[in-house]
Automatic annotation (TrEMBL):
Organism whose genome encodes this protein: Rotaria sordida
InterPro entries given in the database record: Alkaline_phosphatase_core_sf (IPR017850), Phosphodiest/P_Trfase (IPR002591)
GO molecular function: hydrolase activity
Keyword annotations of the record: Membrane, Signal, Transmembrane, Transmembrane helix
Transmembrane segments: 411-431
Pfam families linked to this entry: Phosphodiest
Domain of life: Eukaryota
Protein name: Uncharacterized protein
CDD domains associated with the record: Enpp
Keyword Transmembrane helix: yes
Signal peptide boundaries: 1-16
């Protein structure tokens, strides 16, 4: 019985299910940070001491397997919801919705109709506030795509929209001010976004002196972040931090571009998406086969009818995805006409399986293991990871907590190994003690024949009684 109780306690100790918070137990603290376009291998290519110091505090994942399309708005909403782009509906930075008969861009998607296409979409800042103990839970979000829009009726309690000229240092100070407010108003979850090094990658390419300068600035911001944490006893002890990105970056030679009007009549279609891929909506559905045949002859580009889009993309089951999808191989771009003046030296949006499209991931704080270079997982897995850290019930998403177990303390193989050693030693000790008792105890005396056991049917209240001797029975 004692062993059974011990194992029950052991199982409850390593059980990964979140623990419900009470009024006397403040909810966990989590800060999510995204550096736009921060490729997974930048810390290996450039000297970034603050980024490289993070592994001593926690975990660096080799890279994140992100989802298609590998562009800013879709990827950030996938991180926030754990849903693929085809599921949450933000399928590009430039979207056409045939039901709404409207076009949304990064500057005009400030309406809930774009972000609430799927009623099930629930960003992590909303999930945090809708928990059962929501009176203690508040989310604060600055500049994260979609955070200033009521998604299915919900906004973060504190939020500030993206401002292109705002310094990231200012954003860091504001989010920490929200974490430090009195208990009745402070946040327990924060998310912030920085537009670099993406802008520099587009203008100068991923490998350049300008990129080195920008990454040094990002590294300095991480230094500021660590000082803000270390100077606050509560945050140093309790704050979990995730630093990640939406996608990587690839260099683009100047002659690696095509113009769709050179292959098909512009009057037959409209195209939306990005420079590396395009959702093509054909005006007359009878022209789909003809347009597809014309585009399929272009070298270095993958062309799919909607039903043929690879399952690995998870990018076909939405009305906002075109009749035809064209995707350039890494380093190739697609434009509708040659009147564009875009001359990028770096781009993204390519096949999400391409190595250069993979972003970074760092995690540190009380929930994470330390000194760990971890195996990759998907960007849809970040949402269930955040739910676990925040002690939220796991919603059904395209991600899985199982894929991130290896970076969490509760799932640490070392801890499990130590527990198994302790259990083995405990069992061995019990067995050894029982064996010793047999050696030191006097052998039990033999019960005489005149003693007999009674069954309950004999009506006796005792199990063991003394019987009369045979001589005494004869005298009677």
């Amino acid at each position: 019985m004692f062993l059974l109780l011990f194992f029950c306690l052991l199982i409850s100790f390593i059980n990964p299910s979140p623990i419900s918070n009470t009024i006397s137990s403040p909810p966990p603290l989590l800060l999510l940070i995204s550096f736009d376009g921060f490729r997974w291998d930048y810390p290996d290519i450039y000297n970034l001491p603050n980024f490289n110091s993070l592994i001593k505090r926690g975990v660096r994942v080799k890279h994140i397997d992100n989802s298609f399309a590998t562009v800013t708005f879709p990827s950030h909403f996938t991180i926030a919801t754990g849903l693929y782009e085809e599921t949450h509906g933000i399928v590009a930075n430039n979207i056409y919705d045939p039901i709404l008969n409207d076009v949304g861009t990064v500057t005009t998607m400030n309406d809930a109709k774009w972000w609430s296409q799927n009623p099930y979409s629930q960003p992590i800042w909303v999930s945090n506030q809708l928990a059962n103990d929501s009176t203690q839970r508040r989310s604060g979000v600055i500049a994260w795509p979609g955070s200033n829009v009521p998604i299915n009726g919900h906004l973060p309690i504190k939020y500030e929209a993206f401002e292109s000229d705002r310094s990231f240092d200012s954003i860091l100070k504001q989010i920490f001010a929200w974490f430090r407010e009195p208990i009745d108003t402070r946040i327990n979850f924060g998310a912030i976004y920085h537009s670099q090094p993406d802008a520099t990658g587009h203008a100068y390419g991923p490998i350049s002196s300008q990129m080195n300068e920008t990454l040094q600035e990002c590294d300095d911001y991480v230094g500021v972040l660590l000082k803000l944490i270390d100077n606050d006893k509560n945050l140093k002890t309790n704050l979990n931090v995730i630093i990640t990105s939406d996608h990587g970056m690839h260099d683009v030679p100047k002659n690696h571009k095509i113009f769709l009007e050179d292959y098909i009549d512009k009057s037959l279609f409209s195209a939306y998406g990005g420079h590396s891929f395009a959702n093509i909506f054909v005006n007359n559905k009878e022209d789909i086969d003809r347009i597809y045949a014309s585009l399929s002859t272009i070298p270095n580009y993958e062309v799919y009818k909607k039903a043929q889009i690879p399952d690995e993309y998870h990018y076909k089951s939405n009305v906002r995805i075109g009749d035809i999808l064209i995707v350039g191989k890494v380093g190739y771009e697609v434009f509708v006409s040659n009147t564009t003046d875009a001359d990028l030296l770096g781009d993204h949006g390519y096949d999400n399986r391409a190595e250069s499209m993979h972003p970074i991931f760092y995690g540190f704080g009380p929930a994470f293991r330390s000194n760990l270079l971890a195996e990759p997982f998907r960007n849809v897995d970040i949402y269930p990871l955040m739910c676990y850290i925040l002690h939220l019930n796991q919603r059904k998403t395209n991600g899985s907590l199982d894929n991130v177990k290896h970076i969490l303390i509760d799932f640490s193989p070392i801890i499990i190994f130590i527990i198994l050693v302790i259990v083995t030693a405990f069992i061995y000790t019990i067995c050894a003690c029982r064996h010793c008792r047999k050696l030191i105890y006097v052998e039990t005396r033999i019960v005489p024949d005149q003693y007999r056991l009674l069954s309950n049917s004999d009506g006796s209240k005792n199990n063991l009684i003394v019987s009369e001797s045979e001589d005494e029975q004869e005298n009677h």
